[in-house]
Amino acid sequence: MRAAAVETPPPDAFPKAGKAETDRPVSEETLIAAERAETAGLRLVLVTGMSGAGRSTALKVLEDEGYEAIDNLPLSLLDAVVGEVGLKRPIAVGVDIRTRDFAVAPVLEQLDALTGDRRFATTLLFVDCEDEVLGRRFTETRRRHPLAEDRPVADGIAAERRLVAPLRERADLMIDSSRLTPADFRAQVLGHLDLGSGGGMAVFVTSFSFRQGLPREADLVFDVRFLSNPHYDPDLRPLSGRDDAVAAFVEKDPGFAPFFDHLTGMLEPLLPRYEREGKSYLTIAVGCTGGRHRSVFTAERLAAWLGEQDRRVHLGHRDIARDPQRAAGKA
């Protein structure tokens, strides 16, 4: 792995102070982002989140990218360590409820101080996960939740979620690991932090099952349940939207071509607008009932189109691996 370096956006990545191309005032957030991009030094990533969600895994991903990764550093030592190590290489620090001296207010105070330090480009990454999935992870690994020494795991998870809520609200980036494979999780970390690839806004495209719930990280959600359903064809049911037979079935639906044309026609002008506002990543979710056929094919087509537009694309299929036989007549 190559060592990660902070990528400074090109001069035209942010509008000049004063007026944007639409002749409206540039937002204060955009001007601050532009100023930081020009003046910030090495990147500092504070990684926090729910216990069991994948915070340690995120730190390992950053370590593989050349970061100095430090987990559970006592907050009283953070300033000294960042000052010494951070000037030499990018640094990632893991902070959670097990960290000595942990309290939300001091963490937020230190975050404010670091954000104002021009030596660093500081990012707060929050790794989240659904409570049910967290409970299952603790049960399967037979680990105790840090706040559930003498009570049910669910109570510990609920207490922790209340405790870290201000950090989640303040986070610059949030990754939900509930249904991500290890490879998908790694891609999310790299993409959200603009690592391992060229510059420009990263676009995440994912298919999903409405039956399993909306992806919490989605910025844009599109529903393709209006398309003919391959699930009701016994020959197509075991397949997925990646298979040619399913692709042909969905594509011949009279509603698909107009929908896809409208979708890409809408996204084409929107994507550069998101970039001009300083957005570093965008998540587009495409859903159908089972998350296996129609949404998968549409997500594949959308990712291919984005690639043709020279966009940085990360494609995932959240629910494709679920057993199609469980659907019992639904997909």
UniProtKB/TrEMBL annotation:
It comes from the Bacteria. Residues 43-192 form the RapZ-like N-terminal domain. Residues 201-320 form the RapZ C-terminal domain. Residues 1-25 are annotated as: Disordered. GO terms for molecular function: ATP binding; GTP binding. The keyword ATP-binding applies. This is RNase adapter RapZ. It comes from Pelagibius litoralis. The gene is rapZ.
